[in-house]
Specification:
Layout (H helix, E strand, L loop, with lengths): L3 H15 L4 E6 L7 E3 L6 H5 L4 E7 L2 E6 L2 E14 L11 E5 L4 E16 L6 H8 L10 H9 L8 H6 L9 H11 L12 H20 L37 E5 L2 E5 L7
Parallel strand pairs: 2-7
Antiparallel strand pairs: 1-6, 3-4, 4-5, 5-7, 6-7, 8-9
Helix pairs in contact: 1-7, 6-7
Length: 275
């Protein structure tokens, strides 16, 4: 799934490979998928976007947005990107395919679910998109201690767990269940801990973990559980994820637990992250 580190990496790679190229052909909705979402009729994408020149690609939370003159292409959630060099054949299955004037192409496919919205500038009123653009990024200097405390003050601390606070309700767009795991392990906090139970030092360590872990993930091109524009896993080696095949905590050597919580799996070390 695209979360903040992946959106940052993908935006940089897309800009590098595609900026200045002109779209020659668009194929949308070739392989039917119940949870592949488009803005309007996907069959209209070719007429809308053909002939447009690619500008910058930008990251907003877990969104990747490509500038196409007076249009935008916005991607989020479970979209897999694949850059195809000139001469590489079009894959048999995909949900969106952009062919450019130099023969290169960008191919997108959906895993579990994902959105590929093409729209004129200023017309996308999707609330998740708007929040992702408006909220302060954890990678920005403006995401400081005061801002973080204001987010904490916006919830009922006695009822809200650390995971619910960080990874639901779009309080911090791009911080989802995936990146959450290493953030909480770094801060040594159990995902079910209530915010009201955290001491001042624990709040400070959580804030620093958010800033430092996300920056490290972004600087290394995303997590090793996700693939970049070239089909290569990101350079950040996750500690608490399916890639920890041995399920051993590198901090204490204990056994890592995996369980379902709030609509997704959580990984944690019972010794290092006590409830």
């Amino acid at each position: 799934m695209i979360e903040l580190p992946e959106s940052v990496s993908l935006a940089k790679q897309i800009t590098k490979e595609l900026k200045g190229k002109r779209i020659e052909k668009v194929i949308a909705g070739k392989s039917p998928h119940r949870f592949a979402f488009f803005c309007g009729d996907p069959l209209a994408y070719d007429a809308m976007l053909r002939g447009k020149t690619v500008g910058e690609a930008k990251s907003f939370g877990g969104h990747v947005e490509i500038e196409l003159e007076d249009y935008r292409l916005d991607f989020n959630d479970g979209i897999t990107f694949k850059f195809l060099a000139p001469g590489e054949p079009e894959p048999k299955k995909h949900q969106l395919y952009l062919l450019f004037d130099d023969g290169s192409a960008l191919c997108m496919s959906v895993q579990m679910y994902g959105a590929m919205y093409a729209f004129p500038v200023g017309t996308n009123d999707n609330p998740y998109y708007l929040v992702a653009r408006e909220k302060v990024s954890p990678l920005a200097d403006e995401f400081d201690v005061d801002y973080f405390r204001s987010l904490m003050d916006s919830v009922d601390r006695k009822k809200t767990s650390v995971k619910a606070f960080l990874a639901t309700e779009q309080r911090i767009p791009g911080l989802g269940n995936g990146v959450l795991q290493d953030i909480l392990w770094t801060a040594r906090l159990h995902p079910k801990r209530k915010l009201a139970d955290l001491g001042g030092q624990e709040v400070a360590e959580l804030f620093m973990a958010i800033k430092n872990v996300l920056k490290d993930m972004a600087d290394k091109g995303g997590r090793d559980t996700e693939k970049n524009l070239y089909g290569v896993p990101g350079g950040y080696k996750t500690v608490m994820s399916k890639n920890n095949a041995a399920m051993v905590c590198p901090g204490c050597g204990g056994t890592v637990r995996k369980e379902a919580y709030l609509g997704g799996s959580v990984y944690y070390c019972p010794a290092c992250q006590k409830l």
